[in-house]
Amino acid sequence: MLGTDVPLIVLWLVAGGVFFTAYLGLINVRGFGHAVGLLTTKPSGAEGEISQWQALTTAVSGTVGIGNIGGVAVAITVGGPGAAFWLMMAGFLGMATKCAECTLGQRYRVTHADGRVSGGPMYYLKQGLAERGMAPVGRALGAFYAASMVIGCLGIGNMFQSNQAATIINEISGGAFDGRAWIIGAVLAALVGLVILGGIKSIARTAERLVPSMAGLYLVLGALVLFAHADRIPGAVTTIVSSALAPESGVGGLLGAMIIGFRRAVFSNEAGLGSASIAHSAAATTHPAAEGYVALLEPFIDTVVICSLTALIIVTTVYEPGMTGSIDGIALTTRAFESTYAWTPIPLATVAVLFAFSTMLAWSYYGLQSFNYLLGNAAERFPFLGTLFKLVFLAFVILGASVNLSAVIDLSDALVFVVAIPNLIGLYLLAPVVRDELKRYRDAVLNNR
Asked: What is the pLDDT of residue 4?
């Protein structure tokens, strides 16, 4: 469980968060208020396909998924309550990484003749490193990233989500789909297809309505549970913090909780993967750094708020010392809600399925943009290839509903590591560009108010 592959990915991604938090002068704290303010403004004369609010909700739809409900429970049963503390810390550090990624995504995006906008790590790796005299390295890393994302979108944002959604629907229907989960997958594929065939504008319109609704419903359900156990909250917070900093099992327990917490946070908020910058590149804004500010809100919403709420609910209700990691994540979270209100499994299952659905929408776009990057000019000459990619993506939705879950989790975690390698290399090399863009933005906008 704690083999060398896990510490390596944890170290690689968390080091990026620590670096950018320090390098950008605690922008995850200083820039928070301004980021919220940007969501209520509409920059005039800005080029882009979607608004900043739509970019944020689209990117959040790609991160707020099953991991926010089931993954947190897995982290607690494997790493203890202390894992929740480190999960939240990883979310905080990830805010700075997201700011850097999405600033670069805007800085190096490409606007096509028909008004479409393309951007993301593959573009800032290729163009950004070329500006720094490393064109061959940039081309290689960009192509490697895009190829990894084409494959990765089928696991992280597709098969895993449809698998868990099918499991949930089958459970609440009393096993009506035993051996026939492909039917659920086919329905999900049809619904996803209705949205993604319309492109990023269709995805963004759906996300801006769906994300606030599903997240709001989950927050309300969680608040009701915590309100019923308000007297236990102080003790739960104490347990989480003390278990994180001074676990009973000593140094080994501390490292285990830290690794598990960071690992689940990375899988949930995707800071360091660069995926969100693909959506933020399409946003209409006049300053690249403005989109970086908006993007730092994602790990806060996804991890600091939603994942932490899930952890607090579990610890205040059903967590017992000695729980093993054999307990299914979704089942444990459902049990936590149901222990307080017997009627909660159905609305909770609805939220979980919506989380999975929204994640598939965003990741279909990430995969398509990466696929088009690899095709180059052929993507515009032969547009049917894009449609073909979408059909393949939908086929994997059906497949994911039927395959073994452990295989999907292993594939997803492995692909997280693969796409993070070229992205973080590029982020480190282009860090001065990020800082310069933030300085220009402060000089042009913030300091002239």
From this structure: 36
Q: Which residue has the tokens 């049809």?
A: 190
| Contact criterion met (CB below 8 Å) for 78 and 322 | no
Whether the Cβ atoms of residue 170 and residue 176 lie closer than 8 Å to each other: yes
Range with the poorest average pLDDT among 142-156, 187-201, 362-376, 409-423: 409-423
Q: Chain centroid to CA 343: how far?
A: 29
DSSP at 377: T
Q: What is the mean pLDDT of the chain?
A: 82
User: What is the per-residue DSSP string for 65-130?
Assistant: SGGGTHHHHHHHHHH-THHHHHHHHHHHHHHHHHHHHHHHHHHT-EE-TTS-EE-SHHHIIIIIHH
Which residues have a Cβ under 8 Å from the Cβ of 393 and sit 6 or more positions away? 153, 154, 158, 192, 196, 364, 367, 368
**pTM for the full model?**
0.87
Distance CA 237, CA 214 (A): 26
Residue with tokens 């619904």: 191
Q: What is the number of helices (H) and of strands (E) in the chain?
A: 24, 2
Whole-angstrom distance, CA of residue 167 vs CA of residue 403: 11
DSSP tag of 282: T
